[in-house]
Write a structure and sequence with these properties.
- The protein has 226 residues and is mostly helical.
- It has 3 domains: 9-55; 63-121, no CATH class; 129-225, no CATH class.
- The chain is 61% helix and 0% strand.
- It has helices at residues 9-21, 26-32, 37-50, 66-78, 83-90, 95-106, 129-141, 146-153, 157-170, 190-225.
- It starts with 8 loop residues before the first helix and ends with a helix.
């Protein structure tokens, strides 16, 4: 049975040192001190992040600014970092804490500093189906830079992110909001269809130009190394 919050910081440190010695594995150490393996892992990560202070029993939540929360969430949604890399980078207490911020962000809730403070979420706006297609194509042509796309079209980061994911899963039809404001695909006239097709072609050409430019730079660097 777990003895949650009964060990002092110095006791936790001694337990971690015993684990570090290799005389017993995590399961053995956890069983000996009647704690869960998960608790043992949390102690170790908190010690790695904050030292002895991280092993102290905390009576209140650690304070994080709204800006830090937003940056951590955006790093997570970018797919470029693992959860552990993010909590190490921003000194977040746990993956559970990070996940709660991501859930709030994707649910269009505000990310605030602990105890209140400035909201760090860009407010979304109403868009048409054609606009969402345009936004997605722009984002894909720019290496899925969601923040750049959001700034360019004055929408929120999470809107840009969710629309791209919907497009990847279900194509243009998946971008309809179902509330009757936009034309269905079969209702588009020829001019609308040509406009969308031209935008697709323009963004695809832009993406190819960017890839070619990058390839030329890499080839030039390779020549210089020889």
């Amino acid at each position: 049975m777990s003895q949650k919050n009964t060990y002092k910081a110095i006791d936790k440190f001694a337990i971690l040192e015993e684990l570090k010695s290799g005389r017993a594995g995590r399961a053995g150490v956890a069983s000996k001190y009647k704690i869960s393996v998960n608790t043992l892992v949390k102690w170790r990560r908190r010690y790695e992040l904050y030292g002895m202070e991280g092993l102290e029993i905390r009576s209140c939540n650690k304070s994080y600014t709204a800006e830090l929360k937003l940056q951590a969430v955006q790093d997570y949604l970018s797919g470029h970092y693992s959860q552990y890399e993010i909590i190490d980078k921003y000194k977040i207490s746990s993956r559970t804490q990070l996940k709660s911020w991501v859930d709030k962000y994707n649910g269009h809730s505000s990310l605030k500093s602990y105890g209140g403070g400035t909201q760090a979420m860009t407010k979304g706006r109403t868009t048409t189906w054609q606009e969402r297609i345009d936004i997605v194509l722009y984002c894909l042509a720019h290496n899925q830079e969601y923040q750049k796309t959001a700034d360019h079209y004055k929408v929120s980061y999470q809107q840009a992110y969710q629309w791209v994911k919907k497009y990847e899963d279900g194509g243009e039809d998946a971008l309809q909001d179902g509330r009757g404001r936009n034309k269905a695909p079969e209702e588009l006239n020829e001019a609308d269809r040509q406009k969308i097709a031209m935008k697709k072609l323009a963004y695809e050409n832009e993406r190819l130009r960017a890839e070619n430019a990058l390839l030329k730079k890499l080839q030039e660097l390779e020549r210089r190394r020889r």
